[in-house]
Write the structure tokens for this entry.
Amino acid sequence: MPANRFNGFTDYGIGLGLRVPHYRHILERKPVCAWFEIISENFMVDGGRPLEVLDRILEQYRVVQHGVSLYFGSADRPDRAHLRKLKALVRRTRTPWLSDHLCWGSVDGTYSHDLLPMPYTFSAARRTAGKIREVRDFLEVPICVENVSSYAEFNASEMAEWEFLAEVAEQADCGILLDVNNIYVSSENHGFDPLDYLRGVPLDRVGQIHVAGHTRFEHYILDTHDHPVPDPVWRLYDRAIRGAGVTATLLEWDDKIPSFDEVHAEALKADTYLAGARAADPR
Amino acid sequence: MKRRRVPAPPAGLRPPPRRVPAALRTDADLRALQRWMLHALVRPLTPSDGLQPRWLDGRPMAEVAAEVIRPGGRISPFERLQIYSRSYWFRLIDCVHEDAPGLRALLGERRFDALVRAYLAAQPSRSFTLRNLCARLPAFLRAHPRWAGRHAAFAAAVADFEWAQTVAFDGEARPVLGAADIAGAAPTRLRLRLQPYVTLLTAAWPVDDYVLAVKQRDALRSAASHAVDGVASRAAARRVARPRRQRVYVAVHRLDNRLYYKRLEPAACRILSALAAGRTLAAAVAAGGPRVRPAQVQAWFAAWMGFGWFCARGKN
């Protein structure tokens, strides 16, 4: 299912995260790239160079918005002023879908600027799904929620993470941005089989996939986005697209960022797996 | 065991729950869990960058963490919480380091680091974007000058200047007023508004020269290190000499989306400040003082309008 209602019935192929060190290269050389994912918050400003750069990018490329501060799982209600800014950006970019994380990160108006794990409870799933619906109705754009990498699970959880993701996605009737690196990182940190995760997710709701690198420490793995994608993550990606179909795929590389060409070449490795998935299921 | 008196929470945070409910059945339960965890994250780290060994009420943190966080594998609940706490602190500290290079150069690494941690402990972020993280740093420095030691007043001026740069970089631009828009308007009734991205500063030191010198130093270091992302390493920071006292009047602004600092004559700054305060054109020009010549005022306004500094007065 290359195109579905969760990604605006698009077929975007392999994209890259738009990052500051690459601005000059992109604006001057105009390299071929199927699409760019922007961090919404970087452009939720009132003026100046960020919006100038964005407008120039929009003249040449397709852009999809990815957010880090909607905090669907926070107990706080959505902030209307925040949503109005986000909606203005949605109109500017004409993003066919918008993604943010299945997490919380603020409470009582104080922000952690982190993607904090949810307690996997039915009550939290109900509340989170309600918030996703409210945001989607306000923004008038399909929403995909992304699974986060995590380092802690709560005693109060009533189900596995993938069951929680499925519960939220079904109740909100939203899409999923499946981050296979995050699945791998969490599986190592919590000791579950990443294939159980894939088997438990409603793959027909997957509108986009993230791949990335991570850093392994002695007792845990950190989701650092500062390395090429390791083989186990590519293997998980392969399994994911064989289940979900050929899906818009994005490489995240956020720290120790190499040249544009190097990052792009890493992303295009996904083509090998996508070709395999196409051959296996030529829909 | 005797329980400690729970200290007052940092600005904006509600007190944490005494206990996180074992089962989270309601929205209030979810909020309790989130308040607890946020309090755990924003507490200052130990000198070795670890999680505090005791909770706010004096109980061992390992015990408190185990009540909420599931054990498993080779890392304990305490260590799992510590990963998040470190991540929180390192991310925010890095952000202030990037946004306040002048302050960092002035104070040196150790004092600057202590200031940043004290600031973040007292004033956790109240904005969805890290762009606003340093908005309250100048006021914090003025309220707590001890963190800058003998540099306190200069440090606050540098912090003002660096925040003004953030505002100039991506602050709102309103439709520019041109000469035709105000032609024929009576000066006694005409009120001009400064663009929101323009900040007027008066400082007892040439903060603009100082911050420029720091930027040039960092640019040289960055070029020398061949850093792809242009971020110089923290370790090699060298102090930039503090300038001599000299009162300066500066407008921090942007033109064609590039940052600029424009030195102003004292009278010009008084006029612009009066306009920014909502006074009429006639009153603002009068605020410039009796020695200001009409031709001088005319030349200033021609330059300011050329920069696009004036916009119509809106609802705000």
